[in-house]
């Protein structure tokens, strides 16, 4: 391999023309490592629903750019901590639940709900050892409506400043977020780069071709299906088809009749998606996590409003699963094309797929470490400078 670098201004100019990022951005482990450190460890990440933390000692765990995290409700409110023992770096808490203390299962180092080390066996005779020197390290925590987010960057822009406007858009669908109840949570894995998957999510240009069921339920005509860039989040908003409400769809779909006539699909930078489908009150959340350059893993949560029947819930989940399977076939194929590295760049449509372009600009400027360009893109201004992205290009994989 020969070391090379990508110039940010050149990448941005290409993106303005509709050129995609080069293929090695989707296949090179060096790029993925930089994305973890420069994107995922500096961004807000969805951890779980606030309703899971109602009593003192309630906690949930998750990961923030690969960093184990625990969010616990203590006497001071929500606290987010790096879920790594200060002794041998074993994860302290597992899953979710309620605890009076946080005790590591490796050597029983025990922390209170604020993260202070309270007990460590055999340390009483250890020279110069003080419990107060070894608390769990802090993370930043904030809530957006009924959801908990965590950030490893203690100096990051506030969550509300990045995503606060989303709550108003969601309210336009008619859904009442505070009434939703978690129905199920699943983990999943796929064989494509995280960007490959989210760029597919960000456009419905492919829907009429690849998603016959979705296109029968939601009107995907360009003049009816609206794409919006809101800085740190991107939105797609459509409406239920009249033919679907009247039961005249030519393909099998779920019954979309209900209180919600609007469909909404949002990506919160960098990797949280929120989906609302027409019908009775429903919402799903997906978190997409890179697992090396050619794999993605994550989890999905399904929410429904009070009184929604199991019949509707199961039918909508099956509908979403079908769309997901269709998307997985597409993104797996794209990833195989990217691994071939020929052609090196694709061409997206700057009008039909401009959310993809915005996302790629955020990725490129973040990986380049150009905070000025990143902020200007999020604020709706053009960005890009002479910063370079060091890359060791991987050989094409057959």
Write a short abstract of this structure.
The protein is 27% helix and 27% strand. The protein contains ten helices and 19 strands.
The geometry reads as: globular
Low-confidence stretches: 393-398
Number of domains: 2
How are the strands of the biggest sheet laid out side by side?
A: 2-11-10-5-4-3-6
What is the top-level CATH class of the largest domain? Alpha Beta
Plain-language structure description:
By secondary structure, the chain is an alpha+beta fold. The protein has 2 domains: 1-42 and 164-398, Naphthalene 1,2-dioxygenase Alpha Subunit, Chain A, domain 1, CATH 3.90.380.10; 45-142, Rieske Iron-sulfur Protein (3-layer Sandwich), CATH 2.102.10. Helices cover 27% and strands 27% of the residues. The chain contains 10 helices and 19 strands. The chain has helices at 8-17, 29-38, 159-171, 194-201, 207-210, 212-217, 242-245, 310-340, 354-368, 371-378; strands spanning 4-7, 45-49, 58-64, 67-74, 77-82, 96-98, 102-103, 110-111, 117-119, 138-144, 147-151, 181-190, 226-230, 233-239, 262-268, 272-276, 282-290, 296-304, 388-391. A 7-stranded antiparallel β-sheet has the order 2-11-10-5-4-3-6. Strands 12-18-17-16-15-14-13 form a 7-stranded antiparallel β-sheet, sandwiched between helices. β16 and β17 form a beta hairpin. α4 (194-201) packs across α8 and α4 (194-201) runs antiparallel to α9 (354-368). 42% of the residues are buried.
Describe how the helices and strands are arranged:
Blueprint lengths: L3 E4 H10 L11 H10 L6 E5 L8 E7 L2 E8 L2 E6 L13 E3 L3 E2 L6 E2 L5 E3 L18 E7 L2 E5 L7 H13 L9 E10 L3 H8 L5 H4 L1 H6 L8 E5 L2 E7 L2 H4 L16 E7 L3 E5 L5 E9 L5 E9 L5 H31 L13 H15 L2 H8 L9 E4 L7
Antiparallel strand pairs: 1-19, 2-11, 3-4, 3-6, 4-5, 5-10, 7-8, 8-9, 10-11, 12-18, 13-14, 14-15, 15-16, 16-17, 17-18
Helix pairs in contact: 1-9, 2-9, 4-8, 4-9, 9-10
């Amino acid at each position: 391999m020969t070391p090379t670098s990508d110039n940010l201004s050149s990448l941005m100019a290409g993106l303005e023309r509709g050129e995609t990022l080069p293929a090695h951005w989707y296949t090179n482990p060096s790029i993925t490592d930089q994305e973890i450190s420069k994107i995922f460890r500096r961004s807000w990440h969805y951890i779980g629903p606030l309703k899971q933390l109602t009593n003192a000692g309630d906690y949930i765990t998750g990961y923030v750019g690969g960093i184990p995290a625990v969010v616990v409700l203590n006497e001071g409110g929500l606290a987010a901590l790096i879920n790594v023992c200060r002794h041998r770096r074993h994860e302290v808490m597992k899953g979710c639940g309620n605890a009076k203390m946080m005790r590591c299962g490796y050597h029983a180092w025990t922390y209170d709900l604020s993260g202070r080390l309270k007990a460590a066996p055999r340390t009483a005779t250890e020279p110069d050892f003080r419990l107060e020197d070894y608390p769990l390290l802090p993370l930043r925590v904030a809530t957006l409506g009924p959801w908990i987010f965590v950030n490893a960057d203690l100096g990051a822009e506030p969550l509300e400043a990045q995503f606060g406007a989303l709550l108003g858009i969601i309210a336009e669908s008619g859904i009442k977020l505070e009434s939703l109840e978690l129905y199920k949570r699943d983990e999943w894995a796929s064989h494509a780069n995280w960007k490959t998957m989210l760029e597919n999510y960000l456009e419905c240009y492919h829907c009429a071709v690849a998603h016959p069921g979705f296109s029968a339920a939601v009107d995907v005509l360009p003049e009816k299906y609206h794409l919006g860039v809101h800085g740190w989040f991107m939105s797609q908003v459509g409406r239920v088809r009249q033919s679907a409400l009247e039961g005249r769809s030519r393909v099998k779909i779920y019954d979309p009749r209900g209180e919600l006539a609007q469909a909404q699909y949002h990506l919160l930078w960098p990797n949280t998606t929120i989906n609302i489908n027409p019908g009775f009150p429903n919402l799903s959340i997906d978190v997409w996590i890179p697992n090396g350059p050619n794999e993605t893993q994550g989890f999905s949560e399904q929410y429904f409003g009070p009184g929604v029947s199991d019949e509707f819930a199961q039918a909508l989940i099956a509908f979403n699963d079908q769309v997901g399977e269709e998307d997985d076939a597409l993104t797996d194929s794209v990833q195989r094309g990217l691994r071939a590295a020929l052609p090196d760049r694709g061409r997206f449509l700057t009008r039909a797929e401009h959310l993809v372009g915005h996302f790629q600009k955020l990725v490129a400027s973040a990986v380049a470490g150009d905070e000025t360009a990143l902020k200007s893109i999020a604020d709706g201004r053009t960005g890009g400078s002479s910063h370079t992205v060091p890359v060791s290009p991987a050989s094409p994989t057959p």
